[in-house]
Design a protein that fits this description.
The complex is a heterodimer of chains A (274) and B (258).
Chain A: H1 5-29, H2 31-56, H3 67-87, H4 89-101, H5 104-109, H6 114-119, H7 125-146, H8 153-179, H9 181-184, H10 188-198, H11 211-218, H12 225-234, H13 242-273
Helix pairs in contact in A: 2-7, 3-7, 3-12, 4-8, 8-10, 8-12, 8-13
Chain B: H1 2-14, H2 17-44, H3 51-67, H4 74-85, H5 88-93, H6 98-109, H7 111-126, H8 133-159, H9 167-181, H10 193-201, H11 209-216, H12 222-256
Helix pairs in contact in B: 1-6, 2-3, 3-7, 3-11, 4-8, 8-11, 8-12
Classes of the chains: A mainly alpha (274), B mainly alpha (258).
Chain lengths: 274, 258
């Protein structure tokens, strides 16, 4: 008998909860690793802020964005970066590794929604608490100290939507790239490239891009929605709701592509291992 | 034996051709974002720097840093891996210098990447209006110092593995610092005041800024002489210190008896 929609949702919730709890326990075991990670992220943030202050020591604005607006863009970019590390990037690496080592066989035998399981195999909430906030504090401090922009509630709401839609869309894009490892057997190069694309120009405002790249970055390779478009909407530099609708449709399209490609990759995987 | 190690490393990496091409593409995307950002900054600081000059600067700086493994510190990861998993013990039993043996093996695995970084530098040279013999000589001298500094930083960070197995994160810390202060992300000339002076006297600019800026200027400025002299001093000082640190770590490794 086919399970009801509620049962399907319940299974997915149980999988998500179990994977999250396991990831948190895993993080707590390697405490030295956490301190090293914290040192790395804090140093990255501080050196990046030095980089920004050196640039803005020479220029007034960058593509129409002043120092404080660029700081806001950096904050959105950082939130995206950590969010991606919490639930997406580690799972992409894990997927590639599972395909390479054949561990995927074991996962496929489990009575679980496999795609859901692979998407949320590792959910490292500990990183949000232990690395994100301490590392982002200097940025938040500078942002408050230099705040020289106006943000509206409506713009923030639209920005929040594109942040979510854009993050999901870019995750699906990266996931599809990782699926190529079902054919090639190797994943590191693919994941490295997809990461580079996902965070392309994270210090560059949306308005700086030529129209063709902007069209590409908001549709076929959706690297502009999660950070650049979000910041532009929050700051009121982009006001049209159409951009939010476009991002929503792109997200839906990428979810469909992800599911279709997953099924195709699984068919190839089964035929190879049988 | 070192030559065999180099060839073995090269054979290993060329087995995964798709990975090599993807790594090249990855670097291309990264550089495209840097060049795009700096073309915007170049336009904003109208009159101070030309966009072509900035593109040339970043191509050469990134090429040099890739060539000497100054930013990613991949060799330190190799040392970390060998220490952490105990593979170093096998090398210690053989009548070889383990640091050099591992380095040559590592160089082999980077064969294709090295070729790419050289091409990157050549493209950077092509953006320059003209090049003098003096520039080429000074560039080669600065490249040697960049190589020494890159090697020393790798050896130092790698040797930290003798004290902590989680040296990979420390490697990231060093990478972030080197990325910003060596000039690979931002020319040192963009800094001002004391910060700039401190940076010019530090060992970091020798790994990217100095070789790149030498190719941009027809004459050596006071700043360039300052970095040049400081780089020689740092090379002479840090190379023996790096080996001393390695030996100190090695004694600890042997004492533990892994």
């Amino acid at each position: 008998m086919k399970p009801s929609v509620f049962e399907e949702i319940k299974i997915r919730w149980v999988v998500l909860k179990a994977n999250t709890m396991f990831s948190v326990k895993e993080s707590l075991v390697y405490s030295l690793n956490n301190w090293g990670g914290l040192a790395s992220t804090v140093v990255y943030m501080v050196t990046y802020l030095v980089f920004l202050s050196a640039i803005f020591g020479r220029v007034e604005t960058l593509a129409g964005y002043n120092y404080s607006e660029i700081l806001l863009l950096t904050l959105v970019s950082q939130l995206n970066f950590y969010l991606a590390w919490v639930w997406s990037i580690r799972n992409l690496d894990q997927l590639g590794e599972d395909v390479k080592t054949g561990k995927l066989d074991l996962i496929l035998t489990k009575p679980l929604p496999a795609l859901w399981y692979m998407t949320f195999q590792k959910v490292n909430l500990f990183m949000l608490v232990f690395e994100m906030w301490p590392a982002t504090l200097p940025l938040v401090y500078l942002l408050i100290k230099n705040a020289d922009f106006h943000i509206s509630l409506w713009g923030t709401f639209l920005g929040l939507l594109t942040f979510i839609f854009g993050s999901i869309a870019i995750h699906c894009f990266q996931f599809v790239l990782t699926l190529i490892s079902f054919w090639t057997g190797e994943y590191r190069g693919l994941n490295g490239l997809s990461y580079q694309i996902a965070f392309f120009g994270d210090a560059i405002p949306l308005e700086a891009y030529p129209k063709r790249i902007m069209s590409l970055g908001l549709t076929a390779i959706p690297f502009l929605a999660h950070t650049a478009l979000t910041t532009s909407l929050v700051l009121g530099k982009t006001t049209s709701v159409n951009w939010v609708l476009l991002t929503f449709m792109v997200m839906i399209a990428f979810i469909i592509i992800k599911v279709k490609m997953w099924n195709l990759a699984l068919r190839h995987y089964s035929s190879a291992s049988s | 034996m070192y030559k065999d190690s180099l060839i073995y490393g090269l054979t290993q990496v060329t087995n995964y051709r798709s990975e090599v091409w993807l790594t090249i593409l990855n670097k291309f995307v990264y550089l495209a974002s840097i060049v795009f950002l700096w073309s915007l900054i170049g336009k904003a600081v109208n009159g101070i720097v030309g966009v072509t000059s900035l593109i040339s600067y970043f191509l050469i700086a990134n090429g040099v840093q890739g060539l000497v493994d100054g930013e990613s510190l991949r060799y330190s990861k190799v040392i970390n891996h060998e220490v952490k998993l105990g593979g170093l013990s096998a090398h210690l039993l053989r009548p070889i210098n383990p640091v050099l043996f591992l380095y040559f093996s590592f160089l082999g695995t980077r064969g294709v990447t090295l070729l790419m970084t050289i091409i990157l530098m050549l493209v950077g040279f092509a953006f320059l209006p003209s090049i003098t013999i003096l520039q080429v000589i000074l560039f080669l001298a600065s490249l040697l110092m960049a190589f020494i500094m890159g090697f020393v930083f790798n050896l130092f960070v790698g040797s930290l593995s003798f004290w902590t197995p989680e040296a990979n994160h420390l490697q990231n810390v060093f990478s972030h610092v080197i990325r910003v202060f060596s000039g690979v992300l931002i020319p040192i000339s963009f800094f001002s005041g004391n910060m700039k002076t401190i940076l010019l006297l530090s060992p970091f600019p020798s790994m990217a800024y100095l070789p790149s800026i030498i190719m941009q200027s027809k004459t050596m400025s006071a700043d360039m002489w300052m970095i040049f002299s400081a780089s020689i001093l740092w090379s002479v000082l840090l190379l023996p210190l790096g080996f001393w640190f390695w030996k100190k770590g090695l004694r600890r490794y042997e004492a533990i008896g892994i």
